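Q: Joint fold for the lines below.
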Amino acid sequence: MISIRYSFALLSAVLGGSALAQTAPPPPPPVSGPVQSVTVSSTRDPVDKSYRRMVKGMDRFEREHALAPQASLRFRLLPRLSTAKMTGITLRIAGDSVTIPVPVAEDNSFVLPRNDVALRQDAAVLANRKTNTMTWRVSVRTPGLPDNVRRLGDLRLECKVGMDAGLISNSAPIFGWLSNMLTDTDQVCSSPDGNYLFFAEQPIYGVTLHYGERRLALPFKLLYAAGDQTPETLPYCDCQVLLDRSYYAPIWDKNWPDDTLVEFDVMEGTP
Amino acid sequence: MSTIFRCLPLCAAVLLGACAVSPQAPPGTVVPDAKASQVEPGVTTKAQLLALLGPTTSIRFDSGVEVWRYLLPGAGAPASYGEYVVVIDPRGVVSKTRRAAEVYQVADKKT
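A: Joint structure:
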């Protein structure tokens, strides 16, 4: 299996040389007069999250709330590198003239406030961490379920909101047309090949679907990012340090209703 | 035609090719249910597991934990199979096992 993220990285690597060669500017002419200076207060890292995109995800949550009628929406920061310090994270929405702090809970989840000015200014959502040390996900949780149980409708909505919110990073904006093809929300969330990866709270060794009298275990190939990651491919997967918690849920399969429960066998007693 | 546009078909081909030939996990070793039942969590070591059931599809995590997946002969259609999953702790001892007589079939998933 090749993940969306890995595809982008591969494509970026293949195209990088040509794109740079094509877009390299000619050398500047000699300067004869006084040099004008421009102060740039901040620049947006290509993988910082777009406030507009995240609000688009929030809009999707409102439109399709019926998938998870009891649930509320939060976003969540997760470690991507083993060196990531996941305590004391601060988050802000940064536009041209507006900065809005976003409170981050102990579990590194947060609610993104709506702000018209930030929306107009195409603000970025920035954390006080290097962007490649963390990954982002949506958290849609129906209350009252045990810690080791999720609801399939919640996961369906997480996928749709996460894709609309642009939580899958694309570091090669020149290929936006291609990224759109690969990250079309409805294609990703309704296809077995969509490969939207979910993370459990703890390392897992089994996932079972429950609906009424029906019970069915997910196969090994739906766990651990398909179980075929190698040391070479793993750095391109945002599951890098969460591999033992990762799984694909059959969100595309309408034979399993939204009220299907997804239960995890966790590796308690193992580090 | 610019370099970038000449490059696009090639890149698309590379990308699609990569998708088509992306490595798949080995199918796993088929073991009789009775033999799998001899594995005892907290007792059976990795070496004993290897001697009893043989090598199979597995994954090792940074924590040192390994998960091995065996196939159990299916009771349903000829192509069906169950799974026997074994967790080996960092000390090399089986800590958990999971048996599923039938597993979710991902018929349409290409990879």
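Q: Anything notable?
A: Chain B touches chain A at residues 2-4, 7, 10-12, 14-15, 18-19, 22-25, 28, 57, 59, 61-65, 67, 69, 83, 85, 87, 89-90, 95-96, 98, 100, 102-106, 108-111 (CB under 8 Å). Chain B has three helices and four strands.
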